[in-house]
Description:
This protein is an alpha+beta fold. It has four helices and seven strands, in the order ββαββαβααββ.
Amino acid sequence: MIKKKSFELFNLNPWESEYGYSAAVKIGNVIHISGCTGYRNGTVPDSFTEQMKNAYANIEDVLKAYGLSFEDIAVEKIYAVDMNALRSKEIISLRKTFYENAYPASTWIGVASLLGEKDLIEIEVSAVISE
């Protein structure tokens, strides 16, 4: 973690400095987690479902570094290259399993493409540390 005057930067992966971003930024008691994709353990699965699972696993890694869980997420933004997949019953049900009926404010955005050629989804969240 790198402390600045009024916020703290958290890096999780070596490629973050290559692209010029941090996995998360802590401002006060709020953790803003950069968009997480389906890339995990050196690969990106082809399926939207598996990419979503990986994106949430990547988010969970950052949350755990701060002693947080999905219960602490207040805001979520999902970027998807396939909105039909995102609004499918399978994906909506999968997403709900991570939040267990305590859903954050959410925005779902259709995009033409994401950074990685195989990326189908990217999820960005903000979580709150209880005081």
